[in-house]
Amino acid sequence: MTLTDLTKDELRELAGRYPQSRSALLPMLHLIQSVEGNVTNEGIEVCADILGISAAEVSGVATFYTMYKRRPMGEHHVGVCTNTLCAVMGGDLIFERLKGHLDVGNDETTEDGKVTLEHIECNAACDFAPVMMVNWEFFDNQTPDSAVELVDKLRAGETVQATRGATITSWREAERVLAGFEDGLVDEGPAAAGPSLAGLEIAAERGWSAPSVDEAKQASSGSGDATSDTKTGAAEQADTQRAETETKVEESPADTAKEGEDD
Ligand code: FES
């Protein structure tokens, strides 16, 4: 497939968004993927030409980051986190189950072209482990059964809503969003929920707050009377909070139960 003039214009538009045009390479590669289904040799040549860099430099970036694919992708990219926390919480089981159910290995696409399966690294959603991603949208607290149900819906073309994010479109459409062309779905679904906000809720209950930017700067500069006072104040607050936590741990139900046993 040959890149159209429209795509080349959009690539130039991306290059023009940055003071240093080569900074646009990452979104440009996402746009290539949205059009071609992967980073093609032609895409590499066109990016290099627009940015005035070598094809080898573009290729070096495209082969370094795992979000860029040199082989054609399926309609949907299904990622299963098998990093430490997700793995022990069931990610490994989910990945094995999906490999068998879809009859593919890692980084392979189903015969119908609908799903490319990949085991992925931590997506910073460990509080919802085990996590799956469909076209980089989150699916939290998955099980082998829910994972199978999810991929079956995708293959059947049913509407699927991410746990914390937008309605699933397709990998190519998601790549266009990553390139910097919005699809109007950005506000769909909750962005944060549950365990991600637990710390914030505890802080609100206890009246804890982060220091202001000025206080933080003073505390980190480490000199002067005012700074010393601020540092002392911040350190005292940290000590108080630590002491409260330690007190809570000392009074944990497990300890209380153990005391009862000892008696
Ligand atoms: S280990 Fe899976 S999201 Fe962090």
Q: Outline of this structure?
A:
By secondary structure, the protein is an alpha+beta fold.
Give a structural overview.
Helix 1 (5-15) packs antiparallel against helix 2 (25-36), helix 1 packs across helix 3 and helix 3 crosses helix 4 (55-64). This protein has three domains: 5-64, Arc Repressor Mutant, subunit A (Orthogonal Bundle); 76-171, Glutaredoxin (3-Layer(aba) Sandwich), CATH 3.40.30; 210-254. The chain has helices at residues 5-15, 25-36, 41-51, 55-64, 84-102, 144-156, 171-179, 198-206, 213-221, 225-250, 253-262, and strands spanning 76-81, 108-109, 115-120, 132-134, 137-139. Strands 2-3-1-4-5 form a five-stranded mixed β-sheet. It is of the alpha+beta class and 263 residues long. The model is unreliable at 224-232 and 246-259 (pLDDT under 50). A hairpin with a 2-residue loop joins strand 4 and strand 5. Helices cover 53% and strands 8% of the residues. The structure holds FE2/S2 (inorganic) cluster (FES). FE2/S2 (inorganic) cluster binds next to helix 5.
Q: Which characteristics define this entry?
A:
263 residues, alpha+beta, Arc Repressor Mutant, subunit A, 3 domains, 11 helices, binds FE2/S2 (inorganic) cluster
Q: What is the third-level CATH name, the topology of the largest domain?
A: Glutaredoxin
Write down the overall mean pLDDT.
87
The shape, in one word, is globular
Q: What is the succession of H and E elements?
A: HHHHEHEEEEHHHHHH
List cofactors, ions and other ligands.
FE2/S2 (inorganic) cluster
Please summarize the sheet with the most strands: 5 strands, mixed
